UniProtKB/TrEMBL annotation:
It is found in: Cell membrane. SUPFAM superfamilies: ABC transporter involved in vitamin B12 uptake, BtuC. Keywords: Cell membrane, Membrane, Transmembrane, Transmembrane helix, Transport. It comes from the Bacteria. This is Metal ABC transporter permease. The chain crosses the membrane at residues 6-28, 33-53, 59-79, 91-113, 144-165, 185-215, 227-249, 255-275. It is a multi-pass membrane protein. Belongs to the ABC-3 integral membrane protein family. InterPro entries: ABC_BtuC-like (IPR037294), ABC_TroCD (IPR001626).
Amino acid sequence: MSPDDVMIIVIAGLLSTSCAVLGGFLVLRGQALLPDAVSHAVLPGIVLIFVLSGERASLWTVVGATAFGVLCVLGSDWLRRSGVVESDAALALVFPALFSLGILGISRFASGAHIDLDSAIYGDLTFAPLRTISLFGADVPRSLVITGVATVAVVALVVGLWRPLQAATFDPAFAELAGLRGRLIGQVLLVAVAGLAVVAFDSVGAILVITFFVVPASTARLLTARLGSMLVVAAGCGWVASVAGHGVAVSLDTSIPGTIGLASGVLFALALVLAPRRGVLARWRART
């Protein structure tokens, strides 16, 4: 295994850890499709920065995309809390509107711009070791720095807000009554998801980001009964999928992000069948 292969696995593993930790809360809150919505809602921000600066891949592009991602999650959360529509309907109302706005912006103001949809959707994880920045006199993959900082920030956020996050996830009304600011904590979680999703798209693409947010957490939910254990197992599932998916992709000479996503799905399928208490076989034995 070459150093580049190790770097790819580490980048994917770090990203899967941060996504799985936040994804555990999303799965329990019934908001698992939020990262998918963010992946569409950021388009107006990218177009806006291109119109203002002419740049498509700069720090301001990330800022613009993050702003519209945050607008998507907070807008859908406001609609959900209004009681007019359900949670899934609120999300389905907000992100198509923002995505459509981005499409209109491209057709009107940026029709001549080249947007690499393959990179945005499927990611360029394979080439992540080649895109480097100078750090303390050494060339370090940019994606490694971004995913490392994101993982540390996510873990620090969850550890620092562990008690209110637990309360707001399982019983938001109690969290508010107990003075734990459940509503504010929920919004902080959504903003963190939007920010992480935006910075992750650059490294692995939308499909793998959505996979890392949802599939490891769903797998861990089948295998555990406590929130803390669920988050640890979810992170472990992400690393296993990263290592196994990379190995299969190299041996078959195929897409690394796609194979990692498939490996995550295989782990979920195994847990769905073999989980000791919630698996299909366990429930079948209990009935018979």
